[in-house]
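WARN retry 2 of 3 for item q-0093 after timeout on previous attempt; input resubmitted unchanged.
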Amino acid sequence: MKKSAFLLIIFFLMFFTVSGIAQSNDTKLTVDEQLGLKSGADPTKALRGKAAGSSRKNGKPVIFTIGDSTVKNGKDDGSNNQYGWGSLLWQWFDTTKVSVENHALGGRSSRTYITEGLWDKVLAGVQKGDYVFIQFGHNDAGSLNTGTRPRASLKGNGDNDTTVVMEATGKTETIHTFGWYMRKYVQDVKAKGATPIILSHIPRNNFVTKDSLQIVRNDKGFGAWCKEAAQMQKVPYINLNGLVADKLEKMGKDSIQLMYFGDHTHTSRLGAELNAKTVAEGVKLSKDKKLKKLRKTLIKTTEK
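OK item q-0093 returned
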């Protein structure tokens, strides 16, 4: 066998092995590393030269979205055929009444979005009467302080923390629970007189079993901690994970594949459209009085 053919076989074996591992162990997924699909980049370029709140018109409210690559993917323009729902959310709101800004960044967790300084930049543009949609969870598992992308938060919603030495820098960092970070976002937004909305993160293209039509849901891990954090802070919560999973299960497996691109986490334009619409429907279906004014800016939603 020629050397080139042998290397080609090895490549395919390695690719399918990695893909299989990713499918079988949801808690260890780091899609950027495993599949090479770069959905995030330099945090200094996350705002692309525009300060948070720059879309504000005549003092009207701004909707800010923060999160990972399922909210904002790559350059936010679909150039890699992957889209985040935050880039399409504006379609469901009357932009003469409210503007929408997507400040999420791929690869970030509830922890690293803060430690990299991204949150401070967004918070600086938040004003009284604004809304901040918060969705994290995809990247909050894994390593605390070792490897190429240590970004995990501690499990749960408590006030416990731990101090670690970061392998790459030798510096110490105090790491909190996922729920603690979510509550910090909420508290910071409240302090500005704005309204925070916590969302559970969208489901992956994963099924309970190989032959099952049931989507794997995250209602006992990060989704549960999101809900708990929202309840503790008495702010709106949208079970985006459950709402989207409900819709996917009605489609069938073949149609579901069209909602994702490149892997089982990042969405195609169709998938991002579905998720953005579901976020808007979540606002409409919510009975929380804090969203009363926001509901009046909705357009195009069809769910009753």
